[in-house]
Design brief:
This protein is an alpha/beta fold. Helix 11 links the parallel strand 8 and strand 9. It is 39% helix and 15% strand. The chain has 13 helices and nine strands. The longest helix is centred in the last third of the chain and has 16 residues. The two termini are 24 Å apart. The strands form two sheets. The protein has a five-stranded parallel sheet, with helices on both faces. Strands 1-7-8-9 form a four-stranded parallel sheet.
């Protein structure tokens, strides 16, 4: 089956060689589709975890969206002095990205940007450091989702970039992953984040969000695994009305090694469903981490996954889950389960 003018049919991601120019990368710095309409009103604070409502209130104040409440925390006369940067500390699936997108949408700013850590570092790679500084200089707000703490070089570049922007009046909002050897799945992220960006630490206020992964609140079990006939039927059905990808797991993983992670979003462009045949567990950590970055893009694009072979929540072996990238893998597992159920 081939791709038609109406964008239906089957494609093979392993045959795509996406390109992404600097201007396109800048234009893409907005909240992902699933958070395009995120607001503080649509954030579902779990009453079992009061820190969620407290975080929401503080972020509303930060974004200028909180109305004064008589006798409350944010009374106009006694509103606390907020730092130019906020860091959302919490486990995966507690709504950090939703709140980050709510800040983006609520802040009455002329120039504001929202992107993942890897999108910002890719922009530095494409445009050069100084050109990136000039591009963002004077921006009102930068939102950085999943600030990567496991690459010292990229962390240093981003810390330096943010330091230059704060001095020109830019406000910052960030979430982050857990760095190597911090196995608390969010419990130690705040301390590690502030330590790694020590030159900028005084500019950030930490906001703690507790809770359980909302994607699993009503989900119990593994990612969905299809038998070959079911898989063929699912891909055929999706290809009849949209664009479906169909790749063996090994072929896709090998191809991801030749595509910069900043281009993964273009790799899945136009798809209605992602198909993966013959899934097998990882034996190489670099390949596993590239797959995590790929799944982040798939999840942000709200694409369902159909797969055969090993259940996708079992692709990261125990030795990987016990290592320094534990939180990344657990987040990916959470997203994989949700995507196969979509």
């Amino acid at each position: 089956m081939t791709v038609s003018a109406t964008r239906t049919g089957v494609v093979h991601l392993a045959e795509r060689a996406p390109q992404l120019a600097g201007a396109e990368m800048v234009a893409a710095l907005v909240p992902p589709p699933q958070f395009a309409d995120a607001t503080f009103d649509t954030y579902r604070a779990d009453p079992a975890y009061p820190s969620q409502q407290e975080a929401k209130d503080l972020l509303q104040a930060f974004s200028g969206a909180a109305a004064p409440v008589k006798g409350g925390l944010f009374r106009r006369a006694k509103r606390p002095e907020l730092k130019p940067g906020i860091y959302l500390d919490g486990g995966f699936g507690v709504g950090k990205t939703h709140l980050l997108a709510s800040v983006y949408h609520a802040m009455p700013a002329r120039r504001k940007y929202f992107g993942s850590f890897i999108e910002y570092t890719a922009l530095v790679g494409a445009l050069g450091y100084q050109n990136t500084v000039e591009l963002f200089r004077g921006a009102d707000l930068l939102c950085i989702d999943e600030f990567e703490l496991d690459d010292p070089g990229d962390t240093m570049v981003m810390t330096r970039l943010l330091g230059e922007l704060v001095t020109s009046g830019t406000r910052l909002a960030a979430t982050s992953n857990t760095p190597p050897n911090a196995l608390g799945e969010g419990r130690f992220a705040a301390q590690d984040f502030l330590r790694e960006i020590h030159a900028m630490a005084s500019s950030f206020q930490t906001i703690r969000i507790d809770g359980t992964d909302f994607r699993h609140r009503a989900v119990d079990g593994h990612a969905v695994v299809l038998e070959e006939p079911q898989y063929e039927a699912a891909i055929a059905d999706a290809a009849a009305t949209g664009l479906a990808s169909d790749d063996t797991f090994d072929a896709l993983i090998a191809h991801l090694a030749h595509v910069h992670p900043s281009r993964y979003i273009r790799l899945i462009e136009g798809l209605a469903v992602v198909g993966l045949r013959d899934v097998t567990p990882f034996t190489d950590q670099s390949a596993a981490l590239r797959f995590v970055a790929f799944i982040d893009r798939v999840y942000d694009a709200e694409l369902p996954i159909r797969a055969t072979g090993t259940s996708l929540d079992l692709v990261f072996p125990e030795e990987m889950l016990a290592g320094g990238y534990r939180k990344k893998y657990l987040r990916a597992i959470s997203r994989l389960v949700a995507s196969t159920l979509a």
